[in-house]
């Protein structure tokens, strides 16, 4: 719900001010075309851009203070999450900002619509010729050499000087789309014929075929059904990744599928719910089953026993609006709900170098809003070691986003028994976000042991990621009716999402608040309930450079892997 003054401001007469062109000030710029892209030429003047404008939020520092207050176990306000209205009041733009930006748009013959619950985002359609004029931009067509992806972006833009302090950023401008579709979801590790089809209920005796029973045994995850109907888990799906019902449940198809094979003890009618964003859909043609979507849904339903689980299918066109726009729209969709799911698992991301710092901070603030409302946001960091998501080049280490956002929990990967760091697990340090306070002890301890090794290849003062880890290879998944084994931190993330969801269920049953933003608790004392991973590496850069696992936190496995029984004790149950 918008505050009354904000709603009224959109219907009040606008102060048009001077009719002469305003003075412009450079707002964001890139020094060069992002690696892998080439300039193909100017964009057609009549090409219509779906422009979004972020207004300066009223009290971001107050939001962050509130987030830590309700997320720090040592705080008197721990677990006293904010309401939707309280969060919106902190981030809603001032009346002056609303009036100034809308006056500028009106002066240029444009009318915007509100695009976020707090009114801090506006949307307007603008032809390239007009966008170039009012932003002093040069929208052009850029082509990715390897994939052929064509996108319209500008390397710089300006805003009127009198909007500085009112207009935070304009998009799409200097943030480029992921040329690979921002999926990088799972790596198919071997054909179905090589999978041990006898391994249905055994624990982890056969590590080349990982099942729900294996993960339950490894992390002491209970198989008893959750009891709270208000406890919910959401899995997000992007870029045409659809979760197939037939691959999940045998009754939807004649052959035996995931739950009947691996969780025959569960309710036979178990199925996920569907919600859509940006005209998303969930195509049930078996040939279109998504490897990532099926992995995430099959292992959240297969591990978070009895928890109502929703698949959020996000549409949109990633080549034009970009994956970042999809992430933003997903966050605003969740923020618009009176009762968003308490845990959200996302197994997608992109290299941080493709994201402008202004946009990264603004989207990260949206995750802070969700955390302040008691939502745990979990993200996979990627599967190319210190190369991030881009396997093609690595001269300096590549952090990944949104895992580098300090208000989310990033989940790295492990392999083997006893577990070691999986070499595919992305991890490192942000070039945008500084080290958060909850890492003030754990990260310097690692850096001290690292010494001068790899100096200059990473930002030692940045937010370190991942935060935790779980097993990340050889997951059995039904995809388009076939049993496939897959790898990736995108497999580890739904495991942790399931663990947190089951902990929330027991907390709710005991009349206690859910865990919400996990990191302050994890770094303060929750790490004692984790298994520290002390060997392995994620070297994937030139000259075999990268990080090594170590005692305590490290930028491959974070603080370690879960032990449900210890975690249950750590949360006071």
UniProtKB/TrEMBL annotation:
Recorded GO MF terms: metal ion binding; serine-type endopeptidase activity; tripeptidyl-peptidase activity
Cofactor note: Binds 1 Ca(2+) ion per subunit.
Residues at the active site: 292, 296, 490
Compartments reported by the entry: Secreted, Extracellular space
Pfam families: Pro-kuma_activ
GO BP terms: proteolysis
Highest rank taxon of the organism: Eukaryota
Location of the Peptidase S53 domain: 209-573
GO CC entries: extracellular region
Keywords, ordered alphabetically: Calcium, Hydrolase, Metal-binding, Protease, Serine protease, Signal, Zymogen
Cofactor(s) named in the record: Ca(2+)
Region forming the signal peptide: 1-17
Alphabetized SUPFAM superfamilies for the sequence: Protease propeptides/inhibitors (SSF54897), Subtilisin-like (SSF52743)
Residues given in the record as Ca(2+) binding sites: 532-533, 552, 554
The keyword Hydrolase is annotated on this UniProt entry: yes
Protein's name according to its UniProt entry: Peptidase S53 domain-containing protein
Organism of this sequence: Postia placenta MAD-698-R-SB12
């Amino acid at each position: 719900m918008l505050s009354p003054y904000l709603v009224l401001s959109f219907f009040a007469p606008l102060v048009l001010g001077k009719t002469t062109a305003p003075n412009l000030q450079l707002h964001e710029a890139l020094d060069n075309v992002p690696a892998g892209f080439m300039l193909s030429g100017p964009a057609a003047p009549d090409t219509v851009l779906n422009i979004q404008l972020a207004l300066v939020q009223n009290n971001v520092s107050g939001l962050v203070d509130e987030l830590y207050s309700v997320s720090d176990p040592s705080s008197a306000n721990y677990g006293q999450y904010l309401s939707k209205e309280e969060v919106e009041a902190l981030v809603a733009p001032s009346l002056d900002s609303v009036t100034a930006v809308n006056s500028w748009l009106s002066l240029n013959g444009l009318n915007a619509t509100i695009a976020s619950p707090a009114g801090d985002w506006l949307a307007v359609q603008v032809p390239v010729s007009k966008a170039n004029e009012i932003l002093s931009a040069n929208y052009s067509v850029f082509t990715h050499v390897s994939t052929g992806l064509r996108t319209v972006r500008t390397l710089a833009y300006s805003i009127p000087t009198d909007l500085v302090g009112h207009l935070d950023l304009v998009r799409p401008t200097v943030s480029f789309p992921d040329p690979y579709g921002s999926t990088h979801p799972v790596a198919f590790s071997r054909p179905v014929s090589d999978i041990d089809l006898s391994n249905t209920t055994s624990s982890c005796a056969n590590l080349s075929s990982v099942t729900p029973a294996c993960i339950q045994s490894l992390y002491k995850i209970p198989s008893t059904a959750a009891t709270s109907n208000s406890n919910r888990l959401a899995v997000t799906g992007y870029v045409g990744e659809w979760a197939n019902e037939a691959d999940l449940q045998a009754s939807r198809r004649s052959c035996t599928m995931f739950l009947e094979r691996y969780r025959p003890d569960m309710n036979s009618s178990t199925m996920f719910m569907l919600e859509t964003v940006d005209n998303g859909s969930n195509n049930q043609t078996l040939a279109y089953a998504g490897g990532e979507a099926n992995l995430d849904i099959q292992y959240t339903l297969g591990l978070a026993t009895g928890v109502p689980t929703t698949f959020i299918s996000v549409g949109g066109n990633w080549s034009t609006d970009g994956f970042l726009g999809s992430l933003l729209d997903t966050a605003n969709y969740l923020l618009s709900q009176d009762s968003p799911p308490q845990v959200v698992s996302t197994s997608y991301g992109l290299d941080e170098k493709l994201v402008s710092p202004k946009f990264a901070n603004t989207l990260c603030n949206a995750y802070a809003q969700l955390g302040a409302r008691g939502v745990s946001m979990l993200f996979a960091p990627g599967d190319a070691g210190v190369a991030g998501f881009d396997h093609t080049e690595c001269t300096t280490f590549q952090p990944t986003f949104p895992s580098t956002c300090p208000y989310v929990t990033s989940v790295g990967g492990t392999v083997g028994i006893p577990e070691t760091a999986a070499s595919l697990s992305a991890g490192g340090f942000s070039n945008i976000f500084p080290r958060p306070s909850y890492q003030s002890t754990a990260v310097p301890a690692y850096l001290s042991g690292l010494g001068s090794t790899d100096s200059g290849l990473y930002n030692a003062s940045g937010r370190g990621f991942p935060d935790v880890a779980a097993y990340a290879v050889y997951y059995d998944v039904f995809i388009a009716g076939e049993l496939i084994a897959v790898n990736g931190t995108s497999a580890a993330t739904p495991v942790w999402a399931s663990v947190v969801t089951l902990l929330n269920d027991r907390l709710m049953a005991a009349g206690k608040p859910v865990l919400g933003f996990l990191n302050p608790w994890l770094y303060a004392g929750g790490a004692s309930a984790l298994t520290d991973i002390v060997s392995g590496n994620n070297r994937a850069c030139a000259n075999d450079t990268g990080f090594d696992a170590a005692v305590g936190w490290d930028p491959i496995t974070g603080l370690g892997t879960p032990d449900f029984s210890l975690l249950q004790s750590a949360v006071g149950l």
